[in-house]
Design brief:
Blueprint lengths: L2 H23 L3 H21 L3 H26 L7 H27 L18 H11 L1 H64 L1
Length: about 210
């Protein structure tokens, strides 16, 4: 691996990790989705550096394209806004940092741990592959798991809408009731002030 390739790999890895981290800590769900797209695109560029152009194209087309469009569609359909509960936000950040630290520790331990002598794998380059063979296997031999995964995604999207929609409607009703109550209280206070002001001159005239 040349020096330029190594530098590009490190930069892309940092960008991918940064995008994943910001996806977890961002308060707005749409911002989280955009950071996830950044992480996925950086991962696809890493695949290009590893001489796997087909995997890179699939990464961009399927994940950064179709899956992210599905995510953003559900967010827009549910009209999700930024998180309002600061306490839950702080707890989520603490959990995120703890999980990231634990994952980094596990990766570091896995990198330095050597249970035995290194095993030499048989030499020879991997045989070339054809995209046609991947498509034939995916839609032929593995057609049932492929369609099952698509159905699971559809069921998950419908389930999220069914579960979250009533909760959001109840929150909106509570917010509307609070605003109506505040407006009524302000109107009553204003009316009371006007009544007091109107009675003051008459009292002075009587004296």
């Amino acid at each position: 691996m040349s020096l330029a390739t190594l530098i590009a790999f490190v930069v892309l890895a940092v960008v991918a990790v940064f995008g994943g981290f910001r996806m977890l800590v961002s308060r707005h769900p749409v911002h989280s989705a955009l950071y996830l797209v950044l992480s996925l695109v950086a991962t696809a560029a890493i695949y290009l550096l590893l001489a796997a152009p087909f995997v890179a194209v699939v990464q961009v087309a399927v994940y950064a394209g179709a899956i992210m469009v599905l995510f953003v569609f559900v967010m827009m359909f549910l009209n999700l806004g930024p998180a309002q509960d600061v306490h839950d936000q702080r707890q989520r950040r603490i959990v995120t940092f703890a999980a990231a630290g634990l994952l980094g520790l596990l990766i570091w331990l896995g990198a330095i741990w050597r249970p035995g002598a290194a095993v030499t794998v048989g030499g020879g380059a991997l045989p070339g592959y054809k995209v046609e063979e991947i498509g034939v296997n995916m839609l032929g031999r593995y057609a049932l798991p492929f369609e099952t995964a698509s159905l699971l995604l559809l069921v998950a999207m419908v389930g999220v809408v069914v579960i979250v929609r009533p909760l959001l409607a109840a929150e909106r009703r509570q917010a509307a009731a609070g605003e109506t109550g505040a407006t009524t209280a302000e109107a009553a206070a204003t009316a009371a002030g006007l009544v007091v002001e109107s009675t003051e001159p008459s009292e002075e005239v009587g004296h």
